[in-house]
Design goal:
With 121 residues, the chain is mainly β. It contains no helices and 14 strands. It is 0% helix and 55% strand. Strands 1, 2, 3, 4, 5, 6, 7, 8, 9, 10, 11, 12, 13 and 14 form a 14-stranded parallel beta sheet that branches. The radius of gyration is 15 Å and the shape is globular.
């Protein structure tokens, strides 16, 4: 009898695909990728990625974040926030490290400190 072989890449993350929409609060223990639309808040103990088609209207509170799409709301990141060239941000940002690629749009304020307090899950 053949034994089933399961391969685990070790990477665990959650995803919201293009064409999907969530209205409400998202709480995640691991990384979260958004390629759809979210109206509400995200609290994540890992990395949040807003993909090229992703839209968030609300707040993000996480350890690391990479924005490729659009965010309208506040972003609180305890470590590193990266805004890719196609990112479009409107709101207040608090982070320890901010990386902005050319052509990224950032309309708002930014506060950078050695330590940033985020809401934990």
């Amino acid at each position: 009898m053949a034994k089933e072989v399961v391969y685990n890449s070790g990477a665990t993350y959650n995803a919201l695909t293009n064409g999907s929409k969530i209205v409400g609060k998202i709480i995640a223990d691991s990384d979260f990728r958004i390629d759809g639309e979210v109206e509400g808040d995200i609290i994540c103990n890992g990395k949040v990625v807003i993909g090229p088609n992703g839209v968030l209207k609300g707040t993000i509170s996480c350890t690391n974040a990479e924005i490729v799409g659009r965010v309208v709301g506040d972003i609180v990141v305890s470590e590193s926030l990266t805004l890719k060239g196609t990112a479009n941000i409107e709101g207040e940002v608090k982070t320890r490290i901010l990386i902005i690629e050319p052509n990224a749009i950032f309309n708002g304020t930014c506060s950078m400190r050695d330590t940033v307090k985020v809401d934990n899950v």
